[in-house]
Amino acid sequence: MGDALRIGIVGAGNISGQYVKTLPRLDNVLITRIADIDASKASSLAAEADVIACTPEELYAAADVDIVLNLTIPLAHAEVALAAIRAGKHVYGEKPLAADTSSARSVLDAARAAGVVVGCAPDTVLGTGVQTARASLDAGDIGVPVAATAFMTTPGHERWHPAPEFYYEPGGGPLLDMGPYYLTALVTLLGPVRRVVGMSSAPRATRVIGSGPRAGTSIPVRVATHVTGVLEHVGGELSTLMMSFDIWGAQLPRIEVYGTEGSLSVPDPNGFAGTVQIFREEWVDLPVRAGYPDAGRGFGVSDMARSIVEGTPHRAGGDLAYHVLDVMECLLRAAETGTSVAICSTCERPAAVTA
Fold first, then answer.
1. How far is CA 354 from CA 22, 218, 270, 299, 351, in A?
2. What's the CATH code of the domain at 10?
3. % of the chain residues with pLDDT over 90
4. SS3 state at 175
């Protein structure tokens, strides 16, 4: 896959362990440094990965870092990305690209001016689940797509996360937290979105931390915790979306796509694999037809590294992440105003990951 690019990780929180396990399996990337504002967290994760622990500022300046992997909280995404770009580094970040489109645009503009590349999670859409569904769609297995549904329901992450405040602050909530997985999958399957309508609510003003040393602590809710809407894709397909931190149990599909000749059931887009099913006369499992096999968080970094070396577009790119963020922002605006909202941004449908 070409020369290995060196990765410096900023942010040693919960998600970082998954990247540290996956990246060493990939032959075109190499972790060299790990930084966090909490030096003890950086040291612990760096020891696990057998790399250098340092401060974020030292990491940005390091000659042995080509790509900064930004695993900080959403409110810090733009700040960290801009610092890395100023140091001449490529950036790949956890979702969302930034807490709002204004900050996200500043990241993309700065990267373009500096001649560096920006990528963003989720890379789960590069796995065999979504990519097999896309291959089936592209082959015309269900005819012409006309609609889709996408549901993410949970009673809230505070039940298991020891420090869940950021889920209930601007930049969080079910839409901005989990929506990127579902919306990135929908754009990968059906193309970009041109218009949205929606409604939202926040039934509870506070949440209670359910685990860890602060269990029992009450935290405020500053965002909508139940969001539902309809997305109109550029091809005319209509996707119905529901993202909720207020539902204890629901028998709903993760994603389904409905065509003129059948339907597709798509596995959880928060994972890389899973079984795709097709319905024409009855539901039947589809064999794996596309996607990176045995993928994990970090495959998007590898895909971006390969594109940098080869000079080709990468799939989990900044323009896609910006469009997804724009769609989410517009959906919340539509819910607030009670009107339909046109999406100003667009993006290319990412290239398929062929088998």
1. 21, 47, 20, 15, 9
2. 3.40.50.720
3. 95
4. helix
pLDDT tens by residue, 246-263: 999 999 999 999 999 999
Torsion of Cα atoms, 185 then 190 then 196 then 200, to 10°: -30
Contact 26, 10 (CB under 8 A): no
What letter does residue 154 receive in the DSSP assignment? -
237 is in which domain, residue-wise?
124-292+322-342
10: β partners: 35, 70
**In terms of Cα–Cα distance, which of 50, 58, 56 is closest to 23?**
50
User: Chain centroid to CA 20: how far?
Assistant: 18
Do 96 and 239 lie in one domain? The reply is: no
Strand pairing of 52-54 and 206-208?
unpaired
**Helix and strand numbers, DSSP H then E, in the chain:** 9, 17
The string of pLDDT tens digits covering residues 18-37 is 999 999 999 999 999 999 99
Cα–Cα distance between 50 and 56 in angstroms, integer?
18
- Report residue 321: phi and psi, to 5°: -65, -40
The reply to whether 193 and 282 lie within a common domain is yes
Please state the pTM of the whole predicted model: 0.95
pLDDT of residue 209: 97
* pLDDT at res. 254: 96
Residue 182 — pLDDT band, cuts 50, 70, 90? very high
Question: In 245-259, which positions are buried (b, 16+ CB within 10 angstroms) versus exposed (e)?
Answer: bbbeeeeebbbbbbb
Q: How confident is the model at residue 219 (pLDDT cuts 50, 70, 90)?
A: very high
- Structure confidence at residue 2 (pLDDT): 45
What's the average model confidence in pLDDT over 164-184? Answer: 92
- Within 10 angstroms of residue 211's Cβ, the number of other Cβ atoms is 12
Edge-to-edge strand ranges of the sheet holding 193-201: 283-285, 277-279, 263-266, 255-259, 145-153, 238-244, 226-233, 193-201, 341-342
* 317 belongs to a structural domain: no
At residue 338, the pLDDT reads 95
CA 287, 290, 294, 296 dihedral sign is: negative
Please report, for residues 31, 34, 46, 50, 219, the alpha-carbon distance to residue 16 in angstroms, rounded to integers and kept in the order given. Answer: 12, 10, 11, 14, 24
